[in-house]
Amino acid sequence: MNAAGPGSPAGLREANRRRVLDAVLAAGEPTQAGIAAATGLAPATVSNIVRQLVVAGRLTATTTVRGGRRVRAVRVVAPAGLVAGIDFGHRHVRVALARAADTVPRSAADGSPGPPVTLLAERDAALADGHGVDDGLETAAAMLDEALAAVDLEGSGLRGVGMGLPAPVDARSGAVGEPGILPGWVGVDAAERASSRLGVPVAVDNDALLGTLAEQAWGALAGVRDAIYLKLSDGVGAGLVLDGRPYRGRAGTAGEIGHVVVGDDAGGPIGGAGSTVCRCGNRGCLETWASTTTVVGLLEPLLGRPLTIAEVVERAHGGHAPSRRVLADTGGHVGRALGGLCSVLTPARVVVGGELAQAGALLLDPLHAALVRWALPGAAEGVEVVAARLGARAHVLGAVALAGELALGARG
Length: 412
Ligand SMILES: [Zn+2]
Known about the structure:
- The protein folds into three domains: 9-76, Arc Repressor Mutant, subunit A (Orthogonal Bundle), CATH 1.10.10.10; 82-219 and 393-408, ATPase, nucleotide binding domain (Nucleotidyltransferase, domain 5, 2-Layer Sandwich), CATH 3.30.420.40; 227-388, 2-Layer Sandwich (Nucleotidyltransferase, domain 5), CATH 3.30.420.40.
- It contains 13 helices and twelve strands.
- It has helices spanning 9-27, 32-39, 43-55, 133-151, 190-198, 207-218, 286-290, 292-303, 309-317, 321-345, 361-374, 377-380, 394-408, and strands spanning 59-66, 69-76, 82-88, 92-99, 121-126, 158-165, 202-206, 227-232, 236-242, 245-247, 349-353, 384-387.
- A five-stranded mixed β-sheet has the order 5-4-3-6-7. Strands 10-9-8-11-12 form a five-stranded mixed β-sheet, with helices on both faces.
- α4 (133-151) crosses α5 (190-198), α9 packs across α10 (321-345) and α10 packs across α11.
- The longest helix is centred in the last third of the chain and has 25 residues, at 321-345.
- It starts with 8 loop residues before the first helix and ends with a helix.
- The model has no long low-confidence stretch (mean pLDDT 88).
- Residues 259, 278, 280, 282, 285, 287 line the site of zinc ion.
């Protein structure tokens, strides 16, 4: 066995160190007793780990009085330098730059989220459909250089980059999966390739998970311990929050709700020969019912020209019955798939992001109704369904949050 493998003493120490850092980040300025309660670790173990992390310059511990008692309160030392987020879509790339210290989430005393991280610079560019890894990274690197030159903060080196891709990323091999949405990237170790091109540590996650991280840090998921973030765009994916932590699964690819097979209310065999073939090879996946491509595809023949989601939503608000019907049906399909997931995971909140979130109640109300209809009654009770707070910037902000974790040493 590897000396630092998961079950080894060194692996266990590392896992405990991360649990302590996570607990401090989640609570802001907890006491050592609070960390022990949150992690389940023995007070002596917490005390040892805190001492080591203070020596390493990662935490500060001060004696303070709370509730009339002297206690040791612990804080994360804000990292120096800059971090960047890069969000790749299959036809665009967005780059954002922030101070690493600003990425440490600061929730208010009542648990409400603080304002989103202040970005020092933000850049957008179009990419060719089906672009290759090298083209994509070259464009992103040029944008990043330009952003770094524009902020010109002396002595503030780039400490890390978080990168989002609209594809599953295997945490064991680093390889980008699933042909179809980013064909030029499949099989590539994206973090390794980006790190060698940019010359700094890079962490990669899929964009739904990054939306989850951003909404947890600065948006609609702050302080919610069990939740689902849904990304409804060209691709349909989810990020799961279980017991306060993003859940990546065995290989880092958890949350692919777009490939759950669903039917419609008209009957017919679910996933049968009449269902649309999905890019994953199955038939009748949620994504074939509820992606932006499907929504515009149902309406374009009626209107005789290409449409955007923003136009569909505008028409629906103006009373255009077919647009309203298509958005409502889309919400219904998503709610049906979510109903099963809610029965299994019993989340407190479902946050809907991605391009289709701009439909608001036109999509969210039918989604909620279908969720309630298809979930186990007790599991659906009280589940809130809300739109994401960070809108189109959620994924690049999540990439910045991921880079912040890298700079803090909480990941990587
Ligand atoms: Zn599929």
